Amino acid sequence: MKQKSIFTIATVITLLLLNSCLPGGGNYAPDSPAGFFTGIWHGWIAPISLILGLFNKDITIYESFNTGWWYDFGFYISIIAGFGSIRLLRKKEG
After folding, report:
1. CA–CA distance from 1 to each of 7, 11, 51 (Å)?
2. Is 90 helix (H, G, I), strand (E, B) or coil?
3. Which of 44, 43, 23 is closest to 34 using CA atoms?
4. What predicted TM-score, i.e. pTM, was given to this entire model?
């Protein structure tokens, strides 16, 4: 029972921290756009952004106020690396 409550508390804290860094939340503007490292972060949390975006129209997967190519590069690198690493977690059959 104690482990379950600790896991629940850790999950809630993690979700709150991730929620503060989601794209489309108003953290960026044309005079201070999201850059390369923000693109990496947004790519890693894209699945969470997608799910939360279903319930909140202000949350998007992609930050519209970005630096352009460098943000895109970071975003796509993390999407490919993040979803590609899921394959490493699978058990090999046969």
Report:
1. 10, 15, 29
2. coil
3. 23
4. 0.69
Cα 83 from chain centroid (whole Å): 12
The answer to whether 59 and 23 have CB atoms below 8 angstroms apart is yes
CA distance 88 to 37: 24
**Is-contact 82 50, C-beta < 8 A?**
no
* Residue type at 74 in one-letter notation: G
Place of tokens 């482990």: 3
Query: In this structure, what are the phi and psi dihedrals at residue 11, rounded to the nearest 5 degrees?
Result: -65, -45
Per-residue pLDDT reduced to its tens digit, 43-79: 888 888 888 889 888 788 888 889 999 999 999 998 8
Distances (CA, A) of 56 to 25, 52, 85, 89: 10, 6, 28, 31
